[in-house]
Amino acid sequence: QNLIEAIQNGVYPVGNESQFEESNWDFSNSFFFAGTVVSTIGYGTLHPKTAGGQIFCVFFALFGIPLNIVFLHRVGKMLSLLCKKLGKFLYEKGMRKKKIKFLTLLFFLATGILVFLCLPSVFFQITEGWSYSEGIYFAFITLSTIGFGDYVVGKQSDRKYFSYYRVLVAIWILFGLAWIALLFNL
Fold first, then answer.
1. pLDDT tens digit string along 85-103?
2. Domain Potassium channel, which positions (predicted)?
3. How many separate domains does the chain show?
4. CA 16 to CA 153: how far, in whole Å?
């Protein structure tokens, strides 16, 4: 009876965890959760367990997902201004428009792959102890919004993470999704 009551009140005992452990809903985890909801990634490792939390999550997603799409569109437009400036610079250097379009797309594709897939994978390799290929896999699965949940940052109990690690990852996710939106715009 006590276990059922505890679960209904949002305490979810798993394995050998004690009831004196800190809540999963600290700022970093909450920020990460909010980012995975509005980006529709949904790893499934951190989720509301009470009826009230679940109902709130539904309404948060109903408003948050469209607002995130608007945000990503705006950031994508700002990045496309950089693309136009690069194109204008190349045009002034005497390049043809077809070549400019190709080079601009290639530049933003290569830069994005480096900034949003390759470099973060090194960071995940160091911080999470994953192999580089596991870091690439996580980065791609996350930014493609597949989000299997087989690899999730900041969840290994034997590792010490700095306090805003998951916040930084959530920001990386938002800007990585904006980069993908830019590629679609291009």
1. 988 999 998 999 889 989 8
2. 22-79, 105-185
3. 1
4. 21
Q: Any idea what DSSP says for residue 23?
A: P
Each residue's pLDDT tens digit, 127-151: 999 999 999 999 999 998 898 889 9
CA distances from 166 to 126, 152, 154 (A): 15, 10, 7
Residue reference for tokens 């798993």 = 14
CA dihedral 35, 139, 78, 186 (to 10 degrees): -130
Containing domain of residue 57, as a range?
Answer: 1-184
How far is 62 from 129, CA to CA, in rounded Å? 36
Q: What is the DSSP letter of 117?
A: I
Q: What are phi and psi of 69, to 5 degrees?
A: -60, -45
The CATH number covering residue 103 comes to 1.10.287.70
The encoded tokens of residue 84 equal 């136009």
Q: Residues 72, 181: contact at Cβ < 8 Å?
A: yes
